[in-house]
Amino acid sequence: MSFSLRYPWLVIVAAIILIISLTAGATKLSFVSDFRVYFSADNPQLLSFEQLEKDFNKQDTLTFLLQPSSSATVLDPRALNEIAQLTQVAWEIPYARRVDSLTNYQRIQSADDNINIDDFYRPEQASAWDISGELEYIRTQPDLLNRLVNKDGDLALIIVSLSLPDGDEKATAELVAYTRKLLAETDLQHLNVQLFGSAIINLALAEAVERDMEALIPASYLLIFAGIFFLTRSLAGTFLALTLTLLSVMATFGALGWAGALGLTTARLTPVVGVVPSMIMIIVIADCLHILATYQHGLRAGMSKVPALAEAVKSNIRPVWITSITTALGLLCLNFSESPPYRDLGNLVAFAALLAAVLSLTLFIAALRVLPQPKIQPGRTLAHPGQWLSGLLLTFWQRVLQPHPRALLLGAVIVSAILAAGVSQLKFNEQWHQYYDESFAVRQALDLQNDKLNGVNFIQYRIAAQDGGSLYRTEPMQQLQQLAEHLETFAEVGFVDSLHQPLLTLNQALHDGDKDYYRIPASDEQVAQAMLLYEMSLPFGMGLNERLTIDQTASRFTVHLFKRTSRELVAFDQALLDWAAEHTPALSIAPGSGLDMVFAQISDRNSISLFQGTLLALVLISAVMMLVLRSVRLGLISLVPNLLPALLAYGIWGYISGHVDLGLSIVACMSLGLVVDDTVHFLAKYRSARARGESTEAAIEYAFSTVGVAMIITSLVLAAGFALLLLSPFSPTWGMGGLMALTVIVALLADLILLPLLLMLLDRD
């Protein structure tokens, strides 16, 4: 008899002390929502991006999107006065480094042989303001149009450039909270304001995950609780399984905190962890339900509580440990991921799988031991829906599967081939702007900017003179202009931010406004003098350090694009580099950078890495199965129901969506570790019966009668729990929930149909 049955209270107290000790580590965790955490420190695209930021300052921003509320245009003096007011107070936002707006845009004008560079608008100009004339002026300024105001004058921006401290995870929330309070306290009667920028996007990511964890995940737990109770009619067992899930979640996150304190990991939570509770739930519920089903089976066979529990432990101790180990192996293959948060996800849930095995075989058993024996009448049939399912399952086996194994296997192969073909429809595309549905304020803001201004994707380039000299020369500036004008012909380009743009206006102003001089000066000396004049005339905080290195040898060149997929961004970048290599030989252009490009590159690399990890995990899991089952044949047969679900689920997803991003690319690894559970329990019971001398058919029937109902219950309720995540407005949550639910259902069908057919045809005496 197990230790948990002999000394249940001792086991309960020891388990609770262990859980409390682990959970205490959760106080050492911190939450980070910065997109940079999705990339390894040695990621080449991230290194390029960070070098760009070192050269030209970081590009963290907070943006005010401004629409007129009492007039047709933001050029109305009443609206401009409020823009000027917001521009002024925006300098007080925490970590603000620079504020660019329509009102403080540096207008270059010439009059009576004098050059005047001043703010586009000051409140004292209101009485003589010409709205239509100013709109025409805006449309002639490539450095202003579609950067700070659109061509119709009904949308303007205030861009606050930020210098966020490294490692301070609360800084973003602090500055956004300050800004929201500032807007609430500012009397704006002529403007509607929406917030956007990288700070808002990062915070929205955290808020989206928090919303899901507060609503959908508890709802999925409740749904699973109700489903298990309905099918087993065991209130105590159901409550214990749910409690064990919650304790496992707490202990797992606490263990991560302790690991961080010991320097083994960063102990930083990312939005990816939002799926961890659901994955832990799968593992714990599966372990507990198999034990509970065997326990109830013993009671119905006439056994008393303690012998029935002893039989449940004896029958399930090996399958529980096998499933936990194979689950951990599958999830540990996420360490092949290019993205650190997904590596943390795999390690977290792998630890949870082993912890769940310990708790289910100790705390769960001990708790059932001290609770009153369920009122189950021996020999009674159809006592609850679970027994009705058992009868239905045996009927399905006897009347459908057993009489026609070859025909059904052929049909299963054909259906599987058709579904698997859908994988060819999948495209790896990262589209962060599709993460949020229209209920999110950040989605409304990004759609507004994309539809009315310059798009929401951007690519940044480090451009230097090919000979290593100063960019303040005629030829480099002319080729910068040539490159920008070429890109502006593309429909997907919303705005090109280039160093040469103020030089055009300044050169015209230096020649009394003659339009013929709206060009790059003809000599290197004139270029250098004009740019020096421009820099000296700029007010404090509005210099060119965002665009130019201190030694003037390299410039930041930014291309803003309307919504693009990651593949389209990569293709655009390559097309730009190819064109520049042929037409701008005086320029040395580094490959495109920025977070959009870093994300664009990672999906393909991640899928290749995970494929390698999945193959390794598959080999290890198969070896474990062969060793435990003591049969190479059964180990090889188990590969089919273990590998096929992910393949078919992705195939179905290919027909439904055709889109896979970074989050969905890890489902194959996750599911490989999770779907083996039912296969292991089925084959363990089958192998046990065969060892007693039973025929193949009799052994299959024994497996169906002992674990079939538990397989159905766990799969259906867990699929329902994952399917509930489809209600999430956050696409990484609903996408992973939908694909995981699909995988669980396909795995159930594979274990109930394909696995018995393979055993009948391949495991004969």
UniProtKB/TrEMBL annotation:
InterPro entries: MMPL_dom, Mycobact_MmpL, SSD. It is a multi-pass membrane protein. This is MMPL family transporter. Gene3D superfamilies: Multidrug efflux transporter AcrB transmembrane domain. Its main location: membrane. It comes from the Bacteria. Keywords: Cell membrane, Membrane, Transmembrane, Transmembrane helix. The keyword Cell membrane applies. It holds the Pfam family MMPL. The chain crosses the membrane at residues 6-26, 215-232, 239-260, 272-295, 349-371, 407-426, 610-629, 636-656, 662-684, 704-727, 739-762. It is found in: Cell membrane. Residues 240-370 form the SSD domain.
